[in-house]
Structures are given as C-alpha cells and as structure tokens.
Amino acid sequence: MKSILENNLYDGGSYNIFLIYKPKLRVVMSQSIYDKVINHYVARYILIPKLSKYLNEYNCATREGEGNSLCY
Questions:
Q1: Which tens digits make up the pLDDT trace of 18-66?
Q2: H or E segment to which residue 39 belongs
C-alpha cells in the first residue's frame, strides 16, 4: 500500500451511488473496501501525525484516544 502511494499508482476508485427511500429520500455514496483501506492508511500514517498538534481537544473524530467520551 505504501509503495502504491509513493509511486502515484493510486487513482481513486469510483463510488457506489444508490438511493434510500425510507424514512426519507437520501443519496448514499460509498467507496469500495480497497479505497476505505487507503483512506485509513493516509489518515493514520500521514495526516494525523502531521496535523494533530494543530487540532484542538474538541476535534476528536477518528483520533486514537479521543472521542471516548463527549467531546463538548
């Protein structure tokens, strides 16, 4: 996975787009498992290490050790 990103071989996949009608009409867009794994890898090993020092304590989504209780 790391070599795919380093060599610019990842092109991003397409989204699965579908409608849900109940209880109200919604458009749902989901990625493939492969794309989700790439996104988590980028977040965990690239973005979070570089951005954590700039985020406040209330920004807790997907950060290890954060969000275990109410963030407000």
A1: 999 999 999 999 999 999 999 888 888 888 888 888 877 666 666 666 6
A2: helix 33-42
Q: Sign of torsion, CA 28 12 41 46? A: negative
In angstroms, the CA 57 to CA 52 distance is: 10
Q: How far apart are CA 33 and CA 16, in angstroms?
A: 11
Q: Any bridge partners for residue 19, and if so which?
A: 27
Contacts of 3 (CB under 8 A, 6+ apart): 9
Q: Is 8 left (phi over 0), alpha (psi -120 to 50) or beta?
A: left
- Give dist(CA 56, CA 7) in Å, integer: 33
Q: Which residues are CB-neighbours of 30 under 8 A, at least 6 positions away?
A: 15, 16
